[in-house]
Design brief:
155 residues, alpha/beta, Rossmann fold, four-stranded parallel β-sheet, 40% helix, globular
Length: 155
Amino acid sequence: MTTQQTAILFVCLGNICRSPTAEAVFRHKAEEAGLNLFIDSAGTHGYHIGSPPDNRSQAAGQALGYSFKGLKCRRVSDEDFEKFDLILAMDHSNLNNLREMSDPVYHHKIKLMLDYAGLKDEEVPDPYYGGKKGFELVLSLIEQASDGLIATLRK
């Protein structure tokens, strides 16, 4: 990673559903847009460290051409707040967790993913305990937010 490369971190609770989906979708869209970014994902809790993303997230994403290859769950580290230029939480709970975990000097980097979607919704809902439609909704919201984020980065 060069010092000029923008680094973006996507964050949910366990880094098992929403944030790896955001990583996979945004990586694909950023590459298509010709943007040179460092993209990663993590969870505010370490429930699934080392595991691949949820099979249901992968199935929903792969059906639309997104790759989850090489993605493994990890927990947000103290270094992430310094390393990343933008840290995007999937919901208010994780936004608050990130603010509590970090020094206030980094709070300007922490935002909600759906701030970039142009929707009334503010949160990407957690699909973990639901069915297939929940994973498809997450994917749709993340795609919209990813498009908005790319437009913002191009400005």
